[in-house]
User: What shape does this take?
Amino acid sequence: MTLSRFSVNSKISQNKSNLIDALVSLFVFALIVIILFSPAKYAGKVLEGLLLFCTSVLPGLFPFMFLTKILTGLSSVKKLSDKCGKLTQKLFNSHGLGAYSLLMSCLSGYPVGAKIVGDLHSNNLISDTDAQKMVTFSMTSGPAFVVGTVGGLMLGNATAGVVILASHLISNLLTGMIFCKSTKFNPHKHSPTQPNKNLSSQNCFVTSQHFSIASNTPQHASNKNQLSTTHLDTDSHDFQKQDKLENNFDTNSRSFQTDHTLIAGFDTTKHSSNKNQHPRKHLDISEHSPNSFRDSQNNFNTVEKKQANIDKILSDSMFGAVQSILIVGGFISVFYCFCEILIDLRVLEVLAFPVGRLLEIFGAPADMSKGLVTGIIEVTRGCKELSNFFPSFPALTTSFASALISFSGLSIILQSKAFLSGTKIKTHFLIFTKSVHAIISFFVCLILSNVFF
Assistant: This one.
């Protein structure tokens, strides 16, 4: 009975997946055919999207992507996690690195927060559960876009931009607290940042064996193969590195002991028998020099590793920043063209009609629906459409703009999903969390707008 029910459920899920794939394929094929009918027109729209990206997005976003990638690779992020861990744990029941992703997202804007979460997860600094928690409060717009572009340029009112930004950030914190406090999340379960107890105990056992043998030289020589076999089961890579270092040290120390018999023309072997007559001329280097030699060699290797690590971080950060900014530009240009196709096919008008009727019930102009529907797809065009209503309905226009910015649009959500591809976060989860963020932001902004306007 259980097996038959399982087979039925698997067939249903497979049929559902095949249906979705077929519908998406049909939709994409239809878009290709539409573009082929008017290639010059839609190529021009793609170019407009690229120009918008190059003039408005690239200059402000690219440096942040490069610098945040460097910070993620350095140890300073962990120090910030240690200092702010209690705050994020108290507010969001989340990992301490959530403070870093939240801060950089608030300063930089979309989609830097999602990129940081993806980078932290790829570097094994956070678990899948931590990543899912952190995206609920680390996907925000920045002050440059909200205050400068939307408030200053589109609405022509800097105060409106500040009100939108305040409501956007307040609602973001509330959204994160709602989702992170829910029972769906198990905090820090299987987190890679917390040590495995079994592995730690094994390592401690082998390490204690190693140190006890190393303290006794004959025993160390006789049990070397036995130690290698024992340590291989738990941490063979570390032991091979340690064994190689010990062999190098033995060779260097033997070479040092052979060569140190003549120092500046002074034969220490001749004077070893007369050390009572000349106690001050006797050089006891065999006891201290190997240790100092090993320390200097370790220091030199540490400096080399740090330099190589910094060089790798810089190159990886530049490569990652260029790759990320190209992903953002590609999504902006494609969705700019996609919006134009929907306008030509009058799909936006069909979708805006029921929204307009709903707005009329609450006393708002029905024409606002076009800006709302457009903003769900691409937030910049939606805010531009809404700005026409600001002189007549300042509080309502500001609230709707805040809701669209908090939702971020399908374009930015898919950009964020591209950076989170290494995690188990689904697209529908991002859409749901951003929808909740938009609803809370609308009401918070409506309250603040009635105070200032």
Q: What stands out?
A: Residues 42-181+318-452 form one domain. The first strand starts at residue 262 and ends at 263. The chain is about 80% helix and 0% strand.
